[in-house]
């Protein structure tokens, strides 16, 4: 049957996919931390007034 075959994984391909996933997780956590630290300051700077703390 066409389209139902299980592809053979090349170790290099699996390593590349793993590296991309780890990079995506690191960027997600890193940018989230930066937003948490600098977000209120930037909102006050750009908009003026107080940013609501949540």
Automatic annotation (TrEMBL):
Q: Which UniProt keywords apply?
A: Membrane, Transmembrane, Transmembrane helix
What residue intervals traverse the membrane?
14-34
Which domain of life does the protein's organism represent? Archaea
Q: What is this protein called?
A: Uncharacterized protein
Q: Which organism is it from?
A: Halorubrum hochstenium ATCC 700873
């Amino acid at each position: 049957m066409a389209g139902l075959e299980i592809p053979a994984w090349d170790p290099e391909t699996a390593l590349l996919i793993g590296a991309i996933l780890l990079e995506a997780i690191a960027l997600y956590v890193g940018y989230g931390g930066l937003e948490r630290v600098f977000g209120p300051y930037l909102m006050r700077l750009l908009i003026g007034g107080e940013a609501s703390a949540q």
